[in-house]
């Protein structure tokens, strides 16, 4: 309807934030779920999806929200059974992400496992209402995502795709097992600590380590830490407008303005798709926590959120460093083995070539 080169940024910023403020004004339970799903859908789909793909996504949403969460609820009373169930889902999610960084089912499984585990184990929320709540939020986000493409048409061309490896090392089972176990331990530790930012920290770490390319891991650790930390600072003007008691429409306008600036910042930094999604997921979650925080210590609460995400980035960077070191050691070992095999092969071929030269030397001596 409205044709503009900035439409991909407008729909990513305006859609989730407008939905967030509407659900918050209606006192909807867990109003952050639908905007967060909408960010995921908009970042994974750079252009308007066909109706056949929308139906496929709807089936995926129903499977994840109803099927997986229902099975998780049945296993909730069995600690070992629930642990193995979550570990299996995380393994499947990371495996699919390694094969396709834009796999929607893998991303939804990761987010749903984190939300389901923290809400049921830490917040002691009733698991019976969670499947329907997730399904309603995901379906609403899916419908509004399609409508946003109709209102603001245009393909996303400014965000770089995630790098992928041409060889088969992206599906290395040892790496996926390490990531799955590490993510499970992080979730257990966050629940044991009882931090109010457990969901934000877990989503940040999970989004960081789901990438398959070791070079991208190193790039994230070195450069994207600064990008993500600075991206969090874009929520401070929103916090100030809300703390001063300004009208809701002013807070919404400031959030949209800061979101547009964040998108421009990410494009100037040549941010890849996975980091772009992480930036806006954190931005929407932080805005939600700002507008739902009641009290005079808003600045202190914002600093706590900033420190929490910084800790998450550091933990994710350490995990990626361990993965990069392990991958480098494996490649060096394989290179050494191949070199040794080549040397052995050449040493075996050398004696067999020697007798062939003797008749030629004897003929030259006779002449």
TrEMBL record:
The chain crosses the membrane at residues 12-45, 57-76, 104-120, 132-152, 182-205, 225-243, 249-267, 274-291, 303-323. InterPro entries: DUF2955. The keyword Cytoplasm does not apply. Pfam families: DUF2955. Residues 329-367 are annotated as: Disordered. Residues 350-367 have a biased composition (Low complexity). This is Permease of the major facilitator superfamily.
């Amino acid at each position: 309807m409205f044709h503009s080169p900035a439409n991909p940024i407008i729909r990513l910023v305006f859609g989730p934030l407008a939905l967030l403020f509407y659900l918050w004004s209606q006192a909807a339970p867990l109003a952050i779920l639908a905007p967060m799903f909408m960010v995921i859908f908009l970042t994974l789909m750079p252009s308007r999806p066909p109706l056949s793909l929308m139906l496929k996504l709807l089936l995926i949403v129903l499977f994840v929200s109803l099927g997986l969460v229902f099975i998780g609820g049945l296993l909730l009373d069995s600690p070992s059974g629930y642990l193995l169930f979550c570990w299996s889902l995380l393994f499947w999610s990371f495996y699919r992400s390694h094969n396709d960084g834009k796999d929607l089912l893998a991303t939804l499984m990761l987010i749903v496992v984190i939300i389901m585990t923290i809400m049921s184990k830490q917040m002691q929320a009733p698991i019976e209402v969670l499947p329907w709540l997730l399904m309603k939020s995901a379906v609403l986000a899916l419908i509004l995502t399609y409508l946003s493409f109709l209102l603001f048409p245009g393909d996303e061309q400014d965000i770089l795709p995630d790098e992928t490896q041409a060889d088969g090392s992206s599906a290395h089972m040892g790496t996926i097992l390490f990531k799955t176990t590490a993510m499970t331990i992080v979730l257990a530790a966050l629940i044991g600590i009882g931090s109010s930012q457990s969901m934000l920290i877990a989503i940040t770490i999970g989004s960081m380590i789901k990438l398959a390319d070791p070079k991208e891991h190193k790039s994230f650790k070195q450069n994207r830490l600064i990008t993500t930390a600075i991206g969090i600072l874009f929520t401070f003007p929103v916090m100030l407008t809300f703390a001063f008691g300004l009208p809701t429409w002013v807070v919404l306008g400031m959030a949209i303005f800061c979101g547009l600036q964040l998108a421009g910042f990410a494009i100037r930094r040549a941010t890849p798709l996975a980091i772009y999604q992480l930036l806006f997921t954190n931005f929407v979650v932080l805005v939600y926590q700002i507008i739902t925080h009641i009290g005079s210590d808003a600045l202190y609460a914002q600093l706590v959120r900033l420190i929490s995400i910084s800790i998450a980035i550091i933990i994710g960077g350490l995990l990626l460093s361990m993965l990069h070191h392990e991958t480098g050691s494996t490649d060096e070992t394989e290179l050494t083995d191949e070199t040794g095999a080549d040397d052995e092969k050449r040493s075996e071929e050398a004696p067999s070539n020697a007798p062939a030269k003797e008749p030629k030397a004897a003929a030259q001596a006779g002449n």
